Amino acid sequence: MEDFRVIVVLTLCAVAVCVESKYMIYDTGAGVVEGKLNVHLVAHTHDDVGWLKTVDQYYVGSNNSIQGACVQNVLDSTVQALLADKNRKFIYVEQAFFQRWWRDQSEATQAIVKRLVSSGQLEMINGGWCMHDEAAPHYIDMIDQTTYGHKFIKEQFNVTPKIGWQIDPFGHSAVQAYLLGAEVGFDSVFFGRIDYQDRAKRKGDKHLEVIWRGSKSLGSSAQIFAGAFPENYEPPPGNFYFEVNDDSPIVQDDINLFDYNVEERVNDFVAAALSQANITRTNHVMWTMGTDFKYQYAESWFRNMDKFIHYVNKDGRVNALYSTPSIYTDAKYAETNSWPLKENDYFPYASDINAYWTGYFTSRAALKGYVRMLSGYYLAARQLEVMKGRNKTGPTTDYLGDALGIAQHHDAVSGTSQQHVANDYAKRLSIGHKEAEVVVAESIACMVSPKPGCSSSAANFHECSLLNISYCPSTEADLSSGKKLVVVIYNSLGWKRSDVIRLPVVSENIAVFDSNGKQVESQLLPVVQESISLRNYYATAYAGKSPSSTPKYWLAFTASVPPLGFTTYVISSTEKPASNFVKEAFYKHTGTGKDDIEIGTGNLKLIYSGSEGKLSQYINSQSSIEASMKQSYAFMLDLMALRGSSCLRASGAYIFRPNGTYPIGSQEQNITVLKGTIYDEVHQKINSWIYQITRVYKNKEHAEVEFTVGPIPIDDGVGKEIVTQITTTMKSNKTFYSDSNGRDFIERIRDYRADWDLDVNQPIAGNYYPINLGIYLKDEKSELSILVDRSVGGSSIVDGQLELMLHRRLLYDDGKGVAEALNETVCVGSDCRGLAVQGKYYIRMDPLGEGAKWRRTYGQEIYSPLLLAFTEQDGNKATNFQMLKFSGMDSTYSLPDNVVLLTLQELEDGNVLLRLAHLYEIGEDKDLSVMTSVELKKLLAKRKIIKVSEMSLSANQGREEMEKKRLVWKVEGSKSDEPTVQRGGPVDPKKLVVELAPMEIRTFIVTVGKTISRRLVSSDLSLQLSGSN
Ligand SMILES: [Zn+2]
């Protein structure tokens, strides 16, 4: 029967069509058809900005033994395929790649591509430098990298991307939805990965597509239509892959050849469409036609889609069309539906019962630290670039912006690339850093110079990027011959700020003088042997030769720095020690009865048990907090270690799959205490590979913990994940709070999800969340907060306790694609050791309701540490410096406590990009969660402001224009009496005062006049002439 029908078809066809017509024209022009199920075919490629290969290797198509992928081929062939049929459409995302391709093209090709973009055949979507990760990046980095890509698109094509396309990141953040979605003017955002339990429920409820309100403070004013795909970002089940080597049956419609299959393939298509329609609202479904690095021979995909559109529409059961996510979103919007509401975020992400993607929150902790350090540096360096004026021919901060943009990719800062690719990210960052250092040095030299203009550098400034491992050639100089060390300290925050500066030095015979020439209090602490060993190994690995000197002491003094400005300190030699010299006190447990040890000379005191040598109490006399507090380390054992290959899933770069928690360190420990006038230190050698220094500063009400973890031993054949735990008796009732990309805090409840009834199958890994700013918990009396210096994973696994994962070293791949174990090493010659990670976290307790001020203010200080630049000066000559203290703002002005300056950057056209952010959420703090304002005239006091234009967050369109285009979605069950969202009002062009409501970020392009003469500048500042003696 079957055979007979085929023969009939063949005969009919042979007579009617095929013989006469050699060239088949496919009707690919279908648009949306009302009343039918519309299948939107979205042709796309997903091009990771580095993963198994580096970004350049992916672009040029080298190193194909790892992965056959060449983005150049994708773009070359797609342009040809689009020209072949004007109905074909394609979307492109990653501008780091597109920009590489663009500069390779002839003017003629560029003109063609511009036409493809303006006709809508080629649509730039998402449009950042990369598709950033959503767990590990800080929101300032997300804004910067998106701005970088959007700027390129605007300049080349004069278009603004309309759609968010975060299809691959491993979980989705609230900040992505409201800030990098709604606030950049996107109509919708789409993504592939949500928790498997969540996805199952949403499919059943037809809740895959929602209105996502990511911000409590900005509510409906920053909501966005958000669609999770039914499976992933690939074509639907049913064999619809058409890369040259793919094994899906192509649509064979040539009757003269064997294996004609049009009917069969049309049936496959209709079946897949109806199946998707069953879980999707409205008559529109989207098919993501493509996946990683596809369309290297684009014609192969388009040829088959042409045929599908032609034959499926002839069949008539459903309507197939070439589409884009913009067309799809407009179609959804045109329906009069209302949509379910989604709040908070989509973390953590589990792809199956044993695969919680929460390990990558900590993977490559050193790279994460490096990215964060340079993120804060990039912010400061751009400010200094504005103050001096941007170099027309370089050096500039652009390369650092490019490298940081690439580093935000969802396999970069996430820690999920192969090792050689991680090295490539670090190399790019390092090159960008070096160039930005020149900009910083030039700018500082220019500002301190007595000569007008900035042509000659009066002083040669150096920075110390390895200060964290107590290596700084500038400060280790011998000053006994009369040379002086000048330290210029720059503060990129808009507030005056005092902080303790710590520098490694070689001699105790030194003193510190401020910009008035007055000696300031200083303190010397010995540099311990553990620090020296780490320093020597890592400085050698970094610089290629071992350090020539060895510092003996940490010199510490308190620097007070004006907002957006600098101050200068001078260190010179003295006859005898001028600093408070601290000797070690070694406390050794001697069993019960030993007196407790009290640390801290200010309001904050930490009490260590004399018998155990461990932290036991946290006391703040000012805020009347007196709490039991313990701190400990533990390791998680990889399940693979216990079960061997019978374990189906190991912990790896992505996945956290622990099997139990094992305490590290003995019951009783030796501690070393160093007590000074500026701060006290407690040294604890937890074991042979964990060293910890806890500092309590006289004038700060938090404890600073500096940890050095590693090399994590693996000679037992077992990978380990190292956590630290802060334990109190607080009754936190399963609840804790973690930040979203360093911005909003989100309530987390252990073993619970707001959107579905959670089957708890991973009690530790399933409760981990990404931490970028901090984590806290509270009870009816107090709050316990921890702030971090980089992105880490964290949780509260038992009430009253906070936990951070600090480092991981693993011996198996987790089967999620990276195909390497996360086993980082550092080599000096052939001596390779497991990577040690050094970092800091900060602990504070506050009375209930009073913790936010510290979390926000100090959190910003951690992000933007004081920038130190050093130069030497001959002791006999008068100083070359005219300006020893400077503020880029009006000298009487300071930003309000609830505002931070996110961006101050000179663009190529001389305009200034300015971004201001309110730091508090609604209800977060009784005093500071209020409307606030910034006076631009005082903020930019050194420039004449000619014009101020408010822009979208990524600065590619006017804010007003963006708001006019905003789609107004209906939310299911929403009440008409929802509270109106507070926003700052328009900026009066004369008064130039910017209002900011809680959590609001406002972006401006400021047209400025020339720098007001620096002589004028110096007259309104506390100018000191050669007065440092
Ligand atoms: Zn990807």
Class inferred from helices and paired strands: alpha+beta
Radius of gyration in whole Å, from Cα?
30 Å
Helix share bin: 10-25%
Give the overall shape, derived from the CA principal axes: globular
The side-by-side strand order for the widest beta sheet comes to 21-27-28-29-30-41-36-35-32-33
N-end to C-end Cα span? 106 Å
Q: What oligomeric state do the depicted chains represent?
A: single chain
Low-confidence stretches: 1-20, 1013-1029
Number of strands: 49
**Distinct helical segment count:** 20
Main pleated-sheet profile: 10 strands, antiparallel
Mean pLDDT: 92
Strand content: 25-35%
List all distinct small molecules, including ions and cofactors, that are bound in this structure: zinc ion
